[in-house]
Amino acid sequence: MRISEKVAIITGAASGIGRTTAILFAKEGGKVIVADQNGVGGNETVDMIRSDGGQAIFERVNVTSATDIQNMVETTINTYGKLNILVNNAGIAIRLPVVDLPEEDWDRNIDVNLKSIYLSSKYAIPRMIENKGGSIVNIASIYGIVGGRIRAAYTASKGGVVNLTRSMALDYALHKIRVNCVCPGFVNTPLLKNILKTPEEYQALADLHPMGRLGDMLEIAQGILYLASDASSFVTGIALPIDGGYTAG
Ligand SMILES: NC(=O)c1ccc[n+]([C@@H]2O[C@H](COP(=O)([O-])OP(=O)(O)OC[C@H]3O[C@@H](n4cnc5c(N)ncnc54)[C@H](O)[C@@H]3O)[C@@H](O)[C@H]2O)c1
């Protein structure tokens, strides 16, 4: 058990990478707060964890709301007595170039993907300091490392996530709080299944990765687990690509 008895908040855990991470964390002995605005999916994740003998609760959160985030942290402390791990995973992707991008969509993409991490860290870090340490894992993207067409606000948000990760790592290193991020390539999530309709569309996206395929959600979750756990105890401030070689070239 790699995170036995550790308490972990995972945002966006009602679906996709967040759900897979929540299930993996619970299998590894973690107590998980499934934080999402989607109550149906969030409760499904909790049921999946509990039916496997794990521990989890659902907390309804809009990650752009300071009040919701404060409540999320308080519920965690009231339920499990401490907070060891924060995984900032909730995210959306608005696919437009700047000229076509409405200002409110720019604000929404930046708020959900980037401001949310500022907010959750702002309220989680003092609790981690009380507990003499912790680990924060932010979910960025290959588009936090390289640019991407037709996703101006998304790439800006993920570039911000990578550098916010570094700043927080520097600020809180002496408090024994490690802050890292993972940068996934394209991953076979429910979201992608809705966008890609044909095998040819899948293959075209797969071919962008030197390994010639999309990532699997568990491959991303394993990287998140590594950074969250004590296995990475001397690692802070990194952006770990998990991308089949996408950013290597
Ligand atoms: N799927 C990919 O190919 C891929 C690649 C690189 C990075 N990522 C990143 O991984 C993370 C997870 O993506 P996914 O593919 O699993 O997506 P997903 O759509 O399956 O899951 C995202 C979750 O975030 C939640 N969410 C969205 N806005 C929210 C808000 N305001 N408040 C609370 N919850 C909110 C959704 O309800 C959903 O449960 C995102 O940050 C995404 O940018 C995904």
Describe the structure.
- Helices cover 46% and strands 16% of the residues.
- With 249 residues, the protein is α/β, with parallel strands linked by helices.
- It has a single domain, classed as Rossmann fold, CATH 3.40.50.720.
- Strands 3-2-1-4-5-6-7 form a 7-stranded parallel sheet, sandwiched between helices.
- Helix 1 (16-27) links the parallel strand 1 (7-11) and strand 2.
- It is globular.
- The mean pLDDT is 97.
- Bound molecules: nicotinamide-adenine-dinucleotide (NAD).
- Nicotinamide-adenine-dinucleotide is lined by residues 12, 14-18, 36-38, 41, 61-64, 89-93, 112, 139, 141, 184, 186-187, 189-192.
Keywords:
single chain; about 250 residues; alpha/beta; Rossmann fold; 7-stranded parallel sheet; 8 helices; binds nicotinamide-adenine-dinucleotide
What fraction strand?
Answer: 15-25%
Shape: globular
Query: What order do the helices and strands follow?
Result: EHEHEHEHEHEHHHE
Give the beta-strand count: 7
Total discrete domains = 1
Bound molecules: nicotinamide-adenine-dinucleotide
Distance linking N and C termini: 36 Å
Measured on Cα atoms, how large is the radius of gyration? 17 Å
The CATH C-level name is Alpha Beta
CATH fold-level topology: Rossmann fold
Poorly predicted segments: none
Helicity level, as a percent range?
40-55%
Q: What is the makeup of the main sheet?
A: 7 strands, parallel
The main sheet orders its strands as: 3-2-1-4-5-6-7
| Structural category | alpha/beta
Q: Which architecture would the CATH scheme give at its second level?
A: 3-Layer(aba) Sandwich
CATH superfamily descriptor: NAD(P)-binding Rossmann-like Domain
Question: How many helices in DSSP terms?
Answer: 8
Mean pLDDT equals: 97
